[in-house]
Write a structure and sequence with these properties.
The protein is built from 21 helices and 8 strands. The chain is mainly alpha-helical. Helix 10 packs across helix 13 and helix 14 packs across helix 15.
C-alpha cells in the first residue's frame, strides 16, 4: 500500500523580544570602562557632524548635582576678560567648523558613486597640503624586533642569521625556548630548506642567550635563572645561590629551605641573603619586554571616586574623565527647522527638490543618531551612579574603615534588587570598572563575595573567612606550619566554624600551598 504525503500549514503565535538599536548601544556603553568610553565618544564626535561637545561652561546644573559627577576646578577670581574673549573665539571657531562640515556633507550627498579625483603623479600627502599629521609619540618596538636589533650587532654568517631568526621566532611569550634542538633542526630542514645540525643550532642559541634581558633563550627555568645569576658580579651570596640552583634545584622549587640550609651548612643570615638573591631573578624574562615595549605598564583610570571623611561620612562621584557634555549641532537643528517652517507655510515635501529631500533625510538621520548617543551616555552615567550607591549602602562599614573582614556577603542579585535593575545590567556595570577609595583602587568585583552558612544557620562572608585564614597562615611558625585540620581549629576559635574541605578550597583559592611546602 503506497503512502501519501500530506503538507499542511499551521498558524502559531510566538512572542519574541528583540533589542532595539538604542538598547544595544546602551549595553555596549555600559560594558566600557572609562578610558574606552572616552575613545568611543571622541570617535562618535568625529564620525557624526551633528554631535558636538558643549562649551566648558555649558554643563547642565542638574548633571552636576543629580549625577554627582566629577567636575574640573573652576577658574580663580583673577580670570581676565581676555580669557572669556578667547573662549568665545574658540566657540565661534568650533561652530564655524561644524557649519563647514555640514555644508561639505550636504554637497557630497548624491555624489558618493562618483570616482574620486586621482592625485597627480609625484605628489604625496606632505607637499599636497593635505590635512595630515604624523604621529610623533615614538615607534613602539616589539619583542621580536628588539631581539632582531641585537642580532644585527652580531657577526653572523648567512646560515647563522637564518637559524638565529628562526630561534627568535620560536621563543614563547616568557622568552624561553620550549622546543628541543632536534625538533628545530627538523623544522628548519622541512620548512626552510636549511640543513643544520643540532650542535650548530646550539652554538647560535648560545649567542642568543647573551642578549638582553638576561635569561632570554633558556630551555628551562633552571637554565633561565642560571643565565641571569651568571651575568651578575660575583659575591659570596650569589655563589651560594648558584650552588642552590645547580645542586639543590629540586629542593629549591619545592621551597625546602630547611633542607637546603642543612645540606649546605648555611646560617640563618646567610640563608636569608641567598634567598634574597634568588628572589631578584626573573622567571619570565620575555615578559619584561612584552608584546610591545611599555604594554605591561598599564594605567588604571577609576570610574568611581569614593571619599571617606574622618567622621565616617562616605561620599562618591562618577568620574567623567575626558568625556565632555554632548550637544546636537545647531547647524543641523536649524536645517530641520527651516524645512518644518516651509511645511507650515503650505509647501509640501513633494515639492522639495531631490537634493533638498536628501539633505533633510541626511540631517534627520544624523540628529537622531546624535540624540540617541547623548541619551545612551546619560543613561550609562545614571546606571553607574545608582549601582555604586547600592554597593556603598550594602558595604558601608567597609568603606568607612577599609577592613576586608567587614565586607558583607553580596552578590549581583542583592544589588539588582536594591536598584531595580536587571542582574545582567549589574554584571555589565561591575565588569572592568574600578573604584578609587581611601584604602586603594579596586575592581568593582572586589566588593562582591559569596556567603557561607554555618551549621547553626549563621551567614558569613567568604571574603571575611579568607582574610582570617590568610592572617593565621601569615602568623604561623614556619618551622611547624599548620595543616588543614589545625587551620580548622584555629578558625573555629575565631568564630568561623567551617569544614576542613572548605578550608582546603579557600586555601587553594588564596594560592596558599599545603603545610609541607610552607615549611622553612
Amino acid at each position: 500500500m503506497a503512502q501519501k504525503l500530506v503538507q499542511t500549514q499551521t498558524q502559531k503565535m510566538v512572542q519574541q523580544q528583540k533589542l532595539t538599536q538604542q538598547q544595544v548601544l546602551l549595553i555596549r556603553l555600559l560594558e566600557m570602562p572609562l578610558t574606552e568610553l572616552e575613545q568611543s565618544v571622541q570617535t562618535e564626535i568625529d564620525d557624526n557632524p551633528a554631535l558636538e561637545p558643549a562649551p566648558a561652561d555649558g554643563m547642565d546644573a542638574a548633571d552636576r548635582v543629580g549625577e554627582n559627577a566629577l567636575e574640573p576646578a573652576e577658574g580663580s577670581a583673577s580670570t581676565t576678560d581676555n580669557a572669556s574673549e578667547d573662549d568665545s573665539f574658540e566657540e565661534r571657531s568650533e561652530r564655524e567648523e561644524r557649519e563647514s562640515a555640514l555644508d561639505d556633507a550636504l554637497q557630497r550627498i548624491g555624489s558618493d558613486d562618483q570616482m574620486p579625483e586621482t592625485m597627480p603623479a609625484g605628489m604625496d600627502y606632505v607637499n599636497s597640503g593635505a590635512d595630515y599629521e604624523e604621529m610623533a609619540w615614538g615607534d613602539p618596538v616589539s619583542f621580536y624586533d628588539r631581539l632582531k636589533e641585537q642580532m644585527g650587532e652580531q657577526e653572523l654568517t648567512p646560515k647563522q642569521e637564518d637559524i638565529m631568526e628562526y630561534l627568535i621566532g620560536s621563543l614563547d611569550s616568557d622568552g624561553l625556548l620550549r622546543k628541543d634542538l632536534e625538533t628545530i633542526a627538523d623544522e628548519l630542514a622541512i620548512y626552510h630548506n636549511i640543513d643544520a645540525e643540532p650542535q650548530e643550532i646550539d652554538d647560535v642559541l648560545a649567542m642568543l642567550q647573551e642578549f638582553d634581558p638576561a635569561g632570554i633563550g633558556a630551555r628551562s627555568l633552571q637554565e633561565c635563572l642560571l643565565l641571569q645569576i651568571d651575568r651578575k658580579r660575583w659575591t659570596e651570596a650569589r655563589s651560594k645561590a648558584r650552588d642552590v640552583l645547580t645542586d639543590h634545584y629540586d629542593d629549591f622549587i619545592n621551597k625546602r629551605w630547611g633542607r637546603i640550609a642543612q645540606q649546605m651548612e648555611l646560617s640563618d643570615s646567610t640563608l636569608h641573603e641567598v634567598k634574597a638573591e634568588l628572589l631578584k631573578l626573573n622567571p619570565k624574562p620575555g615578559a619584561s619586554l612584552g608584546e610591545t615595549e611599555g604594554r605591561n605598564v598599564q594605567q588604571i583610570t577609576p570610574d568611581f571616586i569614593v571619599d571617606t571623611a574622618d567622621d565616617g561620612t562616605v561620599t562618591f562621584s562618577v568620574s567623567r574623565g575626558r568625556v565632555p557634555e554632548l550637544l546636537v549641532s545647531e547647524s543641523f537643528v536649524d536645517l530641520i527647522t527651516q524645512f518644518k517652517k516651509r511645511e507650515e507655510k503650505g509647501e509640501k515635501c513633494e515639492k522639495l527638490s531631490r537634493s533638498e529631500k536628501e539633505a533633510l533625510v541626511y540631517a534627520k538621520e544624523k540628529v537622531d543618531r546624535a540624540q540617541g548617543f547623548i541619551e545612551a551616555v546619560k543613561q550609562r552615567r545614571h546606571t553607574l551612579y545608582i549601582t555604586m550607591k547600592a554597593i556603598i549602602d550594602i558595604q558601608h562599614k567597609y568603606f568607612q574603615d577599609g577592613d576586608e573582614s567587614d565586607l558583607k556577603p553580596m552578590i549581583l542579585k542583592d544589588v539588582a534588587d536594591r536598584t531595580g535593575l536587571d542582574i545582567s545590567t549589574i554584571s555589565r556595570v561591575s565588569n572592568m570598572k574600578y573604584a578609587q577609595t581611601r584604602w586603594g583602587t579596586f575592581k568593582l568585583r572586589h566588593f562582591f563575595s559569596d556567603s557561607y552558612r554555618t551549621e547553626s544557620g549563621e551567614e558569613m562572608s567568604t571574603r571575611r573567612i579568607k582574610a582570617a585564614l590568610q592572617e593565621i597562615v601569615d602568623g604561623e611558625d614556619k618551622k611547624h606550619p599548620l595543616n588543614d585540620d589545625a587551620l580548622k581549629e584555629a578558625l573555629t576559635k575565631r568564630g568561623f566554624p567551617i569544614a576542613r574541605r572548605t578550608i582546603s578550597k579557600y586555601r587553594e583559592q588564596l594560592g596558599i600551598p599545603v603545610a609541607r611546602l610552607r615549611k622553612n
